Amino acid sequence: HVFGPRHSQEDTFAEVSGLVQSALDGYNVCIFAYGQTGSGKTHTMQGPIDPSSEYRGIIPRAMEQVFKTGEEMAEQGWNYVFTASFLEIYNENLHDLISSSDSKIEIKLVNEKSREVEVTNVKSIIVQNCYDVHELLLKANKNRTVAATKCNERSSRSHSVFRLKIEGKNTKNGETCVGNLNLVDLAGSERVAHSGSTGQRLKEAQAINTSLSELGNVMMALQEKKTHIPYR
User: Fold this and answer.
1) How high does pLDDT run on average in the chain?
2) Which residues sit opposite 8 in a β-bridge?
3) Which terminal residue of the chain, N or C, has fewer Cβ atoms less than 10 Å from its own Cβ?
4) What's the CA gap between 155 and 194, in Å, rounded?
5) Residue 61 contacts by C-beta under 8 Å, 6 or more apart in sequence?
6) Burial (CB count within 10 angstroms: exposed 0-12, middle 13-18, buried 19+), residue 12
7) Could you report the per-residue pLDDT of 164-174, keeping only the tens digit for each?
8) Which residue has the higher pLDDT, 58 or 199?
């Protein structure tokens, strides 16, 4: 869906709130914010780091919904554990935005049949309320790679992935469910002639544009149900 300048943050979240519920129901959900540099992707995903702001983005609003629904489902016997992590992909390398560890981060295939993957050496934090998420976002924002270009004075030079693992168990009937909510703020596609990127900024722009092209290839292959999906 494409949102114009007149759409509010509330309008945007209303469009995806059903997907957030699907993660609570045990599905794997991924939402991308995609667009050219300076188009408002980070604002859409996070907004100002102020839990009371009307301009707060999808991540804080999604967490509000998750915690509220978790409390409501407790009446039916459901108990949930919410575990959050936050990564960035910068120049084709993975970095943990909430950890100071220098351990190498890799994506590995866990189960050949299910094609389940895991990211190694990533710090995961159990979050119990919106305050916990607020603190996590503050830390991640300090560590994310940004730089000024002619198109955007605070341009994200990396893709960021906020991931929430949702584990639920019903104490009345023993039923369990596991879902994952992935909220992705993609770095913006960039015309180097317009952004004026040189040196390190140019290298970043090339990595960003290449990765976005490859993501498009993956989406197309999935849509066409091809036997080979060109993940990278």
Assistant:
1) 85
2) none
3) N
4) 13
5) 9, 10, 13, 17
6) buried
7) 999 999 999 99
8) 58
